[in-house]
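In keeping with the milestone schedule agreed at the kick-off meeting, the structural modelling team has produced records for the first pair of proteins. Each record is given below as a sequence line and a structure-token line. The laboratory manager (R.T.) confirmed that both were archived under the project's standard naming scheme.
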Amino acid sequence: MLTTTFNLKDKKAKLTPAYLIIRWSGQRIAFPTGEKIDPKSWITDSNSRNYNTIKASAPPELKQKLSNIDNRAKNVFRIFENDQGREPEKDEFRRLLDLEFGRIKQEGFFEQYDNWMNHSSLIGRNKPATTLKYKQSKKILEEFDPQITFNKITASYFDKFIAHLFNTGYSPNTVGKHCRSLKAFLNYASGRGYYVHGAALRLMQVPREDTDKLHLDIDQVKDLINLKINNKPLDQARDLFIFSCFTALRVSDLMKVDKRNIKKGYLEIRQTKTGDLVQIPIHPVITDLLKKYKGDIPPRMVEKYYNRQIKEVAKMCDSTAAVADRISSHTGRRTFCSMAIEENWFDSVTQIMRITGHAKESSFWVYVGSKPKMNISALQDKMSDSWK
């Protein structure tokens, strides 16, 4: 429970500074009111410096000033408690009081956003792609509301931001990405004493839609490889797609890889998203493609054009025509994962993850779609054989 009283610094002085003493849950703050008061205006115990009752003869404006200070402090405490679902810590409350009474100037929203990005990068928390995502989110926020402040961001404000993103034409997953960036920043700011509506944070619902986890099986991939294509751009798009099916490259890496990444027996590339250096064994299919393009990778193209072309290629193939409209630049990477598991290319999932760049096995299985069922009979035979 919050209690307040006033304390005069020197009851013998003609005018002395007054402090608002605030106590709650074993914590105490002596907050300077900025007012100097004549101790004679107060009724007090001669053995105490605490002045709880102002005399009726005191100036009315003094009464009003002190009452306003007391009420504002209590209001700051109550708002924080309601929003955050807890009482503020001593340092948090002091900072909020300093902000309320103009003792300190709060940095602008976007200045603090830049501090957050710099801090995260300095401690090694952000990968290059993550930093890029946060910069994109900042740009979108600046376009949405150049005058944004922490106090503005309520649950209804967040809903308006989401509606703006959808109206701009962003997909649910892209909207979710930028909303998560905003929530991550607000949590950071809240932890450093900036006032953020706690209820708003709790009520922020981040949009998400299930991604199409389509992958091709090995027979479909073989059909695409053997497909006769007389159109050169479509032929190159097919080859680039097949290249991704046997390297698991993200489209951001697929469009930048070149013959300099080809080593003896493997492909080496630093992933754009994670910054990690990965080595990918060269499959015989990749060897054939390299021969076809005289030691180079199939020509890269703009992602939007590439997605359109590979759909056209899929429509030309009997085994993929039914799923042609669902095929995209992500399908090749998922196809690699699926074939690697089903065809037992590697000894463990960990080895596949080293190629794909997944840090957590749980994330890998979410990406692939589902774990394969265990072949209990085969495992039993293997156990029996090892015991003989």
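The second protein of the pair:
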Amino acid sequence: MHSWICQSQVRSNSWGLPNTACAPLRGQGGFGSCNGHNWRRVYSTLAQAGEANVMPPNSERIMTIEISLNDQIEGEEVLALYRANEWSSAEKPERLLAALRGSHSLVTARIAGDLVGLANAISDGHLVVYYPHMLVHPQHQGKGIGRRMMEAMQCRYSYFHQQLLTADGDAIEFYRALGFVRAGKTEPMWIYSGDEH
């Protein structure tokens, strides 16, 4: 087994998912073992000045985005991401972290080691998967990070009978662009104890 490094030379404020060229990367985990959670991809994107507090003004450099299905998460970095997106689940930190760590799959996105994106899946492991959370830090939205995290999920769940999620606001068009459609004549329903997400 080997993993892949996928590089795309696009400006990081580009809206579409760029074409990528993949080449083998040896000794850095595995690719192709999605069901075993052994999945990792690294993308290099041309960054804009001032992004991620890693560059001086008026300069450009390559910014590396690492997407992983086998990452470890720390409480404070997760809460910072949820608070940056104003999700109310950040106000229930113990339950939020337990839920994420108990997920069937958890995908992370990191830039220079900093957590900038996170998505999770709940599944029976065979037929149905539900994607409850996908967040990208507001400073890094529009760079294809969410699409790449869903690509990691598709590596594991693309053959499932049903893939479900709930979308609102701008997320509706984002998920439509990824191939999700309204489920027939269904009506979304919930019992919800939060203010936003």
